[in-house]
């Protein structure tokens, strides 16, 4: 029998679980790019940043579960495009993480489905997802869900 995989909206009671999942995500990202926390991660303290995300009406935060236990999370954000876009907004998924032990069983699919459905219900048609270079599994996951590269951010670190 397949385990019950689902995704649900996070609430303030989920902040400890979100912090735990975020720290795992952060460690994985730091293995790829040491600047990730400073440039793309949440501001510290993370607990406060997560509360602010949960309180922001332009942001959605979801938890992916197997049999009711958290194994991943996703954040989606709606943002206005430039004025020449005539008021169109874009949905961005800056964070989507599934614990390695739970990859390939549908947690990520449940998360992205929930987030995209909600943002589409708000009239958003275009979406970006942020993936670090070298994270082949994440790139493949988003490509399998209809995403393709739109831009590449180049970075120079004089200490490397």
* Dominant shape: globular
β-strand percent reads 15-25%
Question: Which regions are unreliable across 5 or more consecutive residues at pLDDT < 50?
Answer: none
Taking the alpha carbons of the first and last residues, their distance comes to 49 Å
- Count the E strands: 5
- Please give the share of residues in helix: 25-40%
Gyration radius, in Å: 16 Å
Which class best fits the helix and strand makeup? alpha+beta
* Average of the residue pLDDT scores: 96
Spatial strand arrangement across the major sheet: 1-2-3-4-5
Seen as an oligomer or otherwise, the chain set is single chain
- N-to-C order of helices and strands: EHHHEEEHEH
Main beta sheet, described?
A: 5 strands, mixed
Describe the structure.
The protein has 160 residues and is of the alpha+beta class. It has helices at residues 15-32, 36-39, 46-55, 107-121, 136-144; strands at residues 5-9, 59-66, 69-80, 89-98, 126-129. It has a 5-stranded mixed sheet, sandwiched between helices. The mean pLDDT is 96.
């Amino acid at each position: 029998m397949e385990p019950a995989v689902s995704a649900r909206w996070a609430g303030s009671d989920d902040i400890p679980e979100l912090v735990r999942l975020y720290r795992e995500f952060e460690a994985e990202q730091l293995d790829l790019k040491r600047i990730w926390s400073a440039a793309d991660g949440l501001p510290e303290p993370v607990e406060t940043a997560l509360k602010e995300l949960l309180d922001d009406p332009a942001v959605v935060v979801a938890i992916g579960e197997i049999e009711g236990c958290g194994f991943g999370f996703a954040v989606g954000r709606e943002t206005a495009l430039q004025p020449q876009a005539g008021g169109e907004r874009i949905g961005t998924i800056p964070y989507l993480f599934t614990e390695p032990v739970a990859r390939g069983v549908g947690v990520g699919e449940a998360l992205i489905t929930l987030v995209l459905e909600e943002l589409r219900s708000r009239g958003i048609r275009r979406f970006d997802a942020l993936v670090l270079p070298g994270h082949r599994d994440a790139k493949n996951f988003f490509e399998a869900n209809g995403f393709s590269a739109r831009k590449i951010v180049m970075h120079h670190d004089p200490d490397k």
